[in-house]
Amino acid sequence: MSMTSTNKSLIRAVTGIIMGALVVGLPAVAAAQTVGVLSGHVFDQSGTPIRGVKLTATSDTQIGGPKTTYSDDQGGFRLTGLSPGVFTLTAAADRLKTVVQKNVRVVAASTAEIDILMEVETAEEQVRVVEKAPTVDTNKTSVGEIFDQDFVASLPLESRSYQGVMTLAPGVSDISGSGNPNVRGAAFFNNNYLVDGFSTTDPVTHTFGTNFSFDAQAQQQVLTAGFGAEYADTIGGVTNTVTKSGSNRLEVEATGTYTDQNMQVFKDSRDAGVNRISDLSLSVGGPIQKDRLWYFVSGSVFLQTLTLPLNANFPRHPSETRYGFDGLAKVNWQISARNKLEMKLSLSPATFNNLIQSYLVEPEAEARQTQFTRAPSILWTSALSDSLALSAGASYLDQFINVGPQSCTWDPNCDTVPGTVDVGSNTSRQNYTAQQRRMSRALEARAAIDWFADSRRFGSHDLRIGFKLTASSLSLANTVPGNFVLLNNGPLPFERRESCSNDPKNDGGDCHHNWIYTEISGTKTLAFISEAWKPTRYLTFTPELAAVTSDSRNDKGLQVTGTFLLAPSFRVSWDPTHDGRTAVRGTVSTRVEPGFLALADQSSRRLFSKLCSWDPQAQAYIRNCTSSGGDGGTTVGLPCGPDGINPDGTSCRTKLRPERVWEATVGVEREVWTGIALGADYIYRHLIHGWEDVETNALWNLGGTDVRREGTWKSGRSQFVFDLETPDLKETRYHSVTAFMRKREGRLQANLSYTWTSSRGTSNSSFESIFLDNPGQTVYYDGPLPDDNRHNLQALVTYLATPWLSLGGRYNFVTGGPYNRYYFNNLYGDFTDLRAQRGTDSRGSLNPDNYVDLRLPDLSLLNVQVRFNLQPLIKQPIDIFADVFNVLALRTTTDVFQQNGQNFGGQAGRLPPLNARIALHYRFR
Q: How many Å apart are CA 522 and CA 658, to the nearest integer?
């Protein structure tokens, strides 16, 4: 699977642009912010601004030593290029008391604002120390959370990863537990995953693309709504994880965690099995040269063995095993007082055995996956002057994934054995039904330049201009083991699906049983301009505009995505009490999803598949044959059928409209007591023109159960043709209200929230869904979506009880989401049909008033952590801690079988028993 010459030329061209930008420092071609800004004003006791005050910011995270500036005529000051972390700000001037403001938290790509009150120096007191920093960010307009590593490390996280941290934010729902959540009504592939400012989002699936050790994280920002034009190409959520960078002293950190079935309590016979999860990580950081050159390296090895609980209706299923390594290496170089270079490399090889883990998949039909990810990046940040800051850099994401039959680990002829499916029970047997090898690459170059200006007459300004370019490619190979999939109805043959690497109609009817290889590529650009104007210290207006372009072509050379779109937004923040303790904010914006490589792949050449029913008289699969895939199995923007001609002879070719979200947010936050803030946010989103593949060749009967008896296929050929579209009917309507309380400092820290959500529409799952494929089914699809969990109450609490004992807890109550009842469709040979509105069951009634809602039970989950610091006892920096999950010992159903039949509504998943994970943590610094 080698790259085409076009792809190679594209990569070389973009590489040349990047290297040229890094050499000459062009502000329009490279990286996103991973640094923050600290600004504010200095006043005397009468409220008069003070000029010439020396302000110095220091932090263990800040390479290059203390950062210093002086206040201007309006008493204003600004310190740029600060590494995220906790700072101490010192203000000093002649004949005035020195003020030391501690615990000032700086966040990546954000401005922390703090005002300093200076008093006349006295003989009794020359220095005033302020321990508490402002709790409310009066400049903030986005909706989301910022999680420091010390806080989340003290919580009992089920997944110790940045994906697990992401689910702590209100409005984030990971129903499947895949680590790819739905955010504020958007689909799981609508998110943007950043690490140190660079996107690590998989260019094909648009899900998270890399992993690293939990201990390597320093800070994570999760934005769920109200973010600006810099992310105008993201309609879901944005998470930016800042990794550790080393310091001026040697730091060593090691963590080992372990859990198994012996740590489970209140089990029953269905819980029998082996469940082991172990992880060992080691991180080392420190100086190569003090204040000039720092390093940080981290590695984590993991091994997981998970077994489905015993179910009396099914035999024991083989365990899923996962093992791999996540590594990260980082070097920070302070080239000069104003210039810093950061270089990073992450590597993640892994292997997953028995991946499907379903009672309906027998052992020989299980899947196996191996993968490898490599992600280097380089980032340059520069304070060109006191009023001009630049960040520029590039990253590269390289991934290889191989998915195929688990049987290949013991059967050398596994690729010749066809898989079988029992349509009565939906049970898979004999072999896994697909093999795929995927190699994807994404090269990103991006930059942002900030210009700061202050004047007494026109207020202060932060003009930000940025640019991002992404070039990606995909090399793909697919085949089907045995070249067939057999569908049986109990012991009787029912249907057979044959696969060909060619399109038989183009080769005299001959079917070639082989691999099919495709190569595709695409580019995407985003340019934005943002002006944060503060006419007064208490009011900020931020008008923004982004321009988004995309271009991708399938392996037939047909353009799939080709857009130029403008995405304006407007944000405002206001401190009505003028005391730095209140924030009122609002945003109005539109953002777009310009597309990703999976869309071009969907419309590329695919394996040709022919489905035929069993003829008992001829004793052969020759009846009611239909086909899909091949050279003509997909189209782009032809809703009337594969020939693109309406009945009146006109063309129906339609230009695709990228998925777009219209969003409005309103929020308020107030520090009611020192260090404690209360607030609320309302979010409205309307997602329209979602990507969707629509079957356009079949002429269905009115009931949508089969094709018509006459004129069954538009093209005259019994072939399914899937057209990539952006239909008006695909939409999501999302409303939510979140009320919260935050306390981020002191021995007791807490983040409490309640979220009411309404998420309705036609689809927010995969763009390759069954929605719109069968006109008779369309009427059933508008209803509650899978993330329509109406009420969600969450409490995140940590408490340092003594110097040697700390406690952490997470409580989550969420009302059950909807599910469906699917019926078997003979034409598709799968469970695809609904007979009632989404989320309801007709129970055989023709009267909708008799339908019943299908919802999972409400879920109540309490997890706790108990941590002991052994240093007072053994004089070594060692912690022992235990995470205890499902303390309430509830066995609530979390998933059910949705296929109609004897298993419908049966429990497919439930909360695990009360269980624990033990860990040992060592930290030397």
A: 15
Q: How does residue 80 score in pLDDT terms, banded at 50, 70 and 90?
A: confident
Structure tokens at 67: 């950062």
> 121: helix, coil or strand?
coil
Q: Which one-letter amino acid corresponds to residue 486?
A: L
Torsion sign across C-alpha atoms 42, 47, 49, 54: negative
Q: For residues 638 and 723, is the Cβ–Cβ distance under 8 A?
A: yes
**Total residue length of the chain:** 925
For residue 696, give both structure tokens.
């356009």
pLDDT of 15 over the 60 cut = no
Nearest Cα residue to 142 out of 614, 600, 783, 589: 589
* Cα 723 to Cα 725: distance, rounded to the nearest angstrom: 6
Mean pLDDT, range 197-223, rounded to an integer: 92
Query: Rounded CA gap, 101 and 611, in Å?
Result: 72
The pLDDT tens digits of the residues spanning 29-63 come to: 333 457 888 989 999 888 889 999 999 999 988 99
pLDDT at 279 over 50: yes
Taking domain 31-133, whether its CATH number is 2.60.40.10 is answered by: yes
Q: What is the DSSP string of 360-420?
A: TB-GGG-EEEEEEEEEEEEEEEEEEETTEEEEEEEEEEEEEEEEEEGGGGT-TTGGGPPEE
pLDDT of residue 33: 59
Give CA–CA dist 377/379, Å, rounded.
7
Q: Is the pLDDT of residue 381 over 90?
A: yes
User: What is the DSSP secondary-structure string of 221-246?
Assistant: EEEEE---GGGTT-SS-EEEEEEP--
Look at residue 26 in the predicted model and tell me its pLDDT. 34
| Helix H or strand E segment including 152 | helix 149-153
Residue 221 to residue 796: CA distance in whole angstroms: 16
Question: 614, exposed or middle or buried, with CB in 10 Å at 0-12, 13-18, 19+?
Answer: buried
Residue-wise pLDDT tens digits, 667-726: 999 999 988 999 999 999 999 999 999 999 999 988 888 888 777 889 888 888 999 999
Distance spanning both ends of the chain, measured CA to CA: 47
In 631-675, at which residue ranges do the beta strands (DSSP E only) sit? 634-636, 659-673
Mapping DSSP to helix (H, G, I), strand (E, B) and coil, where does residue 780 land?
helix
- Check pLDDT > 90 for residue 166: yes
3-state SS assignment for residue 744 = coil
Is the Cβ–Cβ distance between 205 and 598 less than 8 Å? yes
Cα 181 to Cα 686: distance, rounded to the nearest angstrom: 18
State whether the Cα torsion 739-743-744-748 is positive or negative.
Answer: negative
The one-letter amino acid at 716? G
**Which residue matches tokens 């931020």?**
542
Domain ranges of the chain: 31-133, 249-359
Nearest to 701, CA basis, from 582, 525, 826, 585? 826
Q: What is the pTM of this model?
A: 0.90
Identify the bridge partners of residue 495 per DSSP, sorted by sequence position: 487, 613
Asked if pLDDT for residue 181 goes beyond 50, the answer is yes
- In the chain, what's the furthest Cα-to-Cα distance? 109
- CA–CA separation, 695 and 687 (whole Å): 22
Q: What pLDDT, on a 0 to 100 scale, did the predictor assign at position 742?
A: 95
Dihedral over Cα of 382, 384, 386, 389: its sign: negative
Eight-class DSSP state of 700: B
CA-based nearest residue to 323, from 302, 346, 339: 302
Tokens standing for residue 634: 């997909």
Strands (E), 262-319: 264-265, 276-289, 293-306
- Distances 661 to 547, 695, 725, 780 between C-alpha atoms, Å: 15, 25, 17, 23
* Lookup: tokens for 677: 């803030």
State the Rg of the chain over Cα: 29
Number of Cβ within a 10 Å radius of residue 13:
12
The span from the CA of 909 to the CA of 859, in Å, is: 13
